[in-house]
Write a structure and sequence with these properties.
Length: 416
């Protein structure tokens, strides 16, 4: 029987093979492989670390492989080598474990090749690492060339490079204390692995995963501080009627409910019916009892009953995710330039259809986790130009390389 260590490496290779063939998100694959292999919490963390390292450093790993092996490789063997070399050169896993367990992932016919390449990587480790620093930025930090070119034009070379470097660092685990749970702050603030985030009341950086009962009982929500900007602009008040139009999985709904002190009404919608059960579960755990959940696709007109019904509307629209590529490692490899144009059409439709639902004295906050002006400032400027009855009252752009948080954009719109 294969050892548990071998299972972790095989699970990593299986996850990468499945990822390359379809549109399944990395996190879902890791959950699936962990359950299939009966991995312990510790081994699941190792699996997460290996797969994340490979996706985060894909181009760099392929560069190193090209220096260690001439000629073609089949896709599975390449993924096995990526898994092995990431352990040796990036993760600092013991050489013998990385080599022996990874070699056993291959078919018997290629195990000799895998063993030879990995042992070469050990012998030439220092020089390989040195060569990495000589590579062009998008190859060194494993981003598509088109993204590097785009960001260099938008932000300038220095900040674009800082953005690539930011995206290639493991994301911190930030928890927001749920103020709707009276004992939450005292519980989290006395936890030895929780450190308060400077300047942000109720946010803590966690070392390692949080205790399971904290999630179960809704004491915290794992949430980057950048998510708060759009809710700050929305400024919900107790007793109001709020529409959270793209609500799943519920993180921003939780911020809204906390600001409203769980008093009033929140209508949550999402276009994907499969995401609604998780949304409802999260709201229930967090003790939010003023929210109702319904499936609605906002590229279509709103139900008549919602017209003119809301004091405030949050539109956290589908976007390119370029502000959260540090967390969503799939995004840099899935995204194409044409996708941004397609997304702006969807975003414009959502905004156009949602505006019918606001009260005359209300406000709309449009938000993304994107860094792209096309999806953010330019789209809002175009909307205001096409709808002169609306004006942009304020906006905020969070930039990772400047603000040391996820990237996010938010704009507050009101009727003139």
């Amino acid at each position: 029987m294969a050892s548990q260590a071998t299972n972790v490496r095989r699970a990593a290779v299986s996850s990468l093979r499945a990822w390359s063939k379809g549109h399944i998100y990395m996190d879902s694959l890791i959950e699936r492989q962990s359950a299939k292999n009966g991995l312990s919490r510790q081994d699941r963390a190792l699996l997460q670390s290996i797969v994340s390292s490979v996706l985060r450093n894909r181009r760099l790993l392929d560069f190193w492989i090209s220096k260690l092996r001439k000629g073609k490789l089949d896709h599975e063997t390449r993924d096995i080598l990526r898994v092995g070399i990431s352990q040796l050169l990036l993760l600092g896993i013991a050489d013998h474990a990385a080599v022996n367990e990874t070699v056993n992932c291959g078919k018997i016919s290629v195990r000799g090749l895998i063993n030879a390449v990995l042992r070469q990587a050990i012998e030439r480790r220092d020089r390989l690492v040195e060569r990495a620093d000589e590579l062009p930025a998008p190859e060194r930090y494993s981003h598509p060339d088109w993204l590097w070119s785009r960001w260099r034009k938008i932000f300038g070379k220095k900040d674009a490079l800082a953005l690539l470097q930011w995206n290639n660092q493991p994301a911190k685990t930030i928890a927001r204390v749920n103020p709707l749970k009276p004992d939450a702050f005292a519980t989290v603030s006395t936890y030895e692995n929780a450190t308060p985030v400077d300047g942000l009341d109720g946010y803590f950086e966690l070392q390692g995963p949080p205790p399971g009962e904290w999630i179960k009982h809704g004491l915290i929500y794992i949430q980057d501080p950048a998510t708060r900007h759009c809710v700050d602009l929305l400024a919900p008040e107790p007793g109001e009627s709020i529409l959270d139009a793209c609500a799943a999985p519920g993180g921003k709904t939780a911020l809204i409910a906390a600001a409203m002190k769980n008093s009033g009404q929140i209508q949550c919608t999402d276009s994907n019916e499969k995401r609604l059960p998780r949304l409802e579960e999260n709201l229930r755990h967090l003790g939010i009892d003023i929210a109702t959940v319904q499936c609605h696709n906002w590229t279509q007109p709103a139900p008549n009953a919602w017209h003119g019904a809301f004091d405030a509307i949050l539109l956290d629209v589908p976007c390119s995710n370029t502000g959260v590529m540090r967390r969503r490692l799939d995004a840099r490899w899935r995204l194409r330039p044409a996708d941004i144009s397609a997304l702006t059409e969807i975003q414009s439709k959502i905004l156009t259809h949602a505006k019918a639902c606001i009260k005359p004295t209300g406000r709309i906050v449009y938000s993304t986790c994107s860094l792209e002006p096309d999806e953010n400032q330019d789209l809002i400027a175009s909307f205001v130009a096409d709808h002169p009855e609306w004006k942009l009252e304020s906006q905020h752009q969070a930039l990772p390389f400047r603000d040391h948080s996820d990237g996010a954009y938010a704009a507050r719109l009101v009727l003139r």
